[in-house]
Amino acid sequence: MTELTVAEQAKRLPLAERLAKNADGIIEQIARDYGVTPIDVLRAMPDEHRVLANGDQFEAIMSELTSWGPVLFIVHTADIVLECEGPIPPGQLGRGYFNLHGDSPIGGHIKAENCRDIAFVSRPFMGRLSCSIQFFNGSGDAMFKIFVRRDEKRDLVSEQVERFNSLRARYA
Description:
By secondary structure, the chain is α+β, with helices and mostly antiparallel strands. The chain has a single domain, classed as Heme iron utilization protein-like fold, CATH 3.40.1570.10. The protein has helices at residues 6-12, 15-21, 27-34, 38-44, 58-65, 158-171; strands at residues 50-54, 70-76, 81-87, 91-94, 97-100, 108-110, 115-125, 128-137, 142-147. The strands form two sheets. A six-stranded antiparallel beta sheet has the order 1-7-8-9-2-3, sandwiched between helices. It has a three-stranded antiparallel beta sheet with strand order 4-5-6, covered by helices on one side. The chain is globular.
């Protein structure tokens, strides 16, 4: 028996059933295959793979991340997957934005009030465990994602996994 592509699975299995059998894959592609938003995909994922928090926790969660050291910061749109590795700098609200300033390649201005949901995601990705915190706007699209970093052996950095699990547990 051959393995089904994600698109073929989408035609044959309801989303929650597909994710229960195989939570691997690019969230945005799974959403396109099923005609839903990325946050809908995460809502359909088994509880063991995700914890959802309200977007009003944005500032508290971002503040916690400043102590993690270098992470992988990703912005995924239909046109680009932009990856930047570095520490999350401290931020503060001002002029309608959460402003990140510090000695890091990660910086800028985030419209924090647009954040509706925050997902703590721990699932297989390309056959390996991944851990991320994903921030979603009111349209159900990812604003950005912060991933636990990998070491030179491509293993997750254990200290960050511990911090991720601790933070995730607070919102479970």
